[in-house]
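Let's practice the habit of predicting before peeking. Look at the sequence and jot down your guess about where helices and strands might fall. Then scroll down.
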Amino acid sequence: MKQFLYSLAIFSLTILFVQCTAKKGARAAIPSLVTPKLYSIAQARWPSITQHDLEMGRSIFTTRCSKCHKAQAVKSRSEREWVKVIIKMAPKAKLTEEEKIKLTQYVFAARKAGKS
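Done guessing? Here is the structure:
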């Protein structure tokens, strides 16, 4: 009986491990939401920016900025106005300095790309 329970436990753990591994691989296949045009615009202004930096900025804009209110269209304000808004709202959204930079880069690039 002990042999059976031991075998069943090993089998269950193996199934669990295989399922978790398969899910992790599936996540890597999610396509980027940052378009090549947006990335090109950002890279022209900030040569060291990465696709991941822009995706992080977009994520902050679409989740943290809309947590308490509806996110504004990036074209609704000038760059100078966006800087003021980001400085004012960053403490409320608990943004780090790095997150503020990535958010600002995304908003500026998206404005230039003509995103709404």
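How did you do? Residues 16-31 have pLDDT under 50 and may be disordered.
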